[in-house]
Amino acid sequence: MSDKVVITCALTGVLTNPEQHPVPVTAEQMAASAKEAFDAGAAVMHIHFRRQEPGQGHLPSWQPEVAAAISDAIRGACPGVIINFSTGTIGRDQQGPLDCIRAGRPEIAACNAGSLNYLKARSNGSWAWPPMLFENPVEKIEELLQVLRETDCRPEFECFDLGIVRSVGMYQEVGMIDRVNYNLVMGVASGMPADADLLPILLRYMKPQSLWQSTLIGRGDIWPLHRRTAELGGQLRTGLEDTFYLPDGNRARGNGDLVQALAGIAEATGRSVASPEEARAIFL
């Protein structure tokens, strides 16, 4: 296990309403929030793009000019930062994400590594939203990987269950990828729960010597799992995409608060936070 740990900050997420939560939307807001996270220890910024028109900031955007403007603003505010793009689309069509990668030239792109019934049930016995299939067949993954090779961008494989973890290993076995970087997404209602007991089991099914991190969705219950990730040698991620709550249960004012808390947890386990230069050596 390396004593260095890379912290990724997931700045804003997919649909969170900026009128209700402190999520950044515009290029200026994204750069300012990224700078707070960067100064607190985050070397990687995971970015979703939002509509820039007034009153539309809660909706996603796949406009290449938006992706480029946000990436340029964050790089200008955070020298040496690593940019990580979201690429997820519910259906098969991913032309928007591919165009954004070509325009923004991120160093890393999230690659959803398998399909998932994306579900959530309410306490009254109804669906929170209409059941939907998060569709990620192998041909869609191969299409994304081809563009990542063209743009010298590393894939980060988002894994929502153990079967997807095992599938990523097969992608390497058949030559689709050379090196594996797993992102264990835990806390989505129809995926893996945010349960620390799962981590040692998941590690058994990863390819040896692979990079891995955990993305933990939830409230105060996720922070002990962040600590367990650090103890087991994983990389760390937090941000307003994943949670609004600090370890003490108070709401975070922004991404800087969350990264500061996560850096403290890493250091309490005996690991030191990687600088952007050190993160590049580890991730790229």
Notes on the protein architecture:
The chain has an 8-stranded parallel beta sheet with strand order 10-9-8-5-4-3-2-11. Strands 1-12 form a two-stranded parallel ribbon. The chain contains 9 helices and 12 strands. The mean pLDDT is 96. The radius of gyration is 17 Å and the shape is globular. With 284 residues, the chain is of the alpha/beta class. Helix 1 (27-40) runs parallel beside helix 2 (64-77), helix 2 (64-77) runs parallel beside helix 3 and helix 7 crosses helix 8. It has helices spanning 27-40, 64-77, 95-104, 138-150, 162-173, 198-204, 223-231, 255-268, 276-283; strands at residues 4-5, 7-10, 44-47, 82-85, 108-112, 116-118, 132-134, 154-159, 181-186, 211-216, 236-238, 272-273. It has one domain (4-283): Alpha-Beta Barrel (TIM Barrel).
Largest β-sheet summary = 8 strands, parallel
Number of helical stretches of at least 4 residues? 9
How far apart are the first and last residues' alpha carbons, in Å? 18 Å
Number of domains: 1
User: How many strands in all?
Assistant: 12
Q: From the helix content, strand content and strand pairing, which structural class follows?
A: alpha/beta
Shape: globular
Point out poorly predicted stretches. Answer: none
- Helix/strand order, N-terminal first: EEHEHEHEEEHEHEHEHEHEH
Average pLDDT: 96
Estimate percent helicity: 25-40%
Radius of gyration: 17 Å
Q: Would you identify the CATH architecture? A: Alpha-Beta Barrel
Question: Looking at this structure, what is the CATH superfamily?
Answer: Aldolase class I
Strand fraction: 15-25%
CATH class equals: Alpha Beta
Find the CATH topology: TIM Barrel
Strand line-up in the sheet with most strands? 10-9-8-5-4-3-2-11
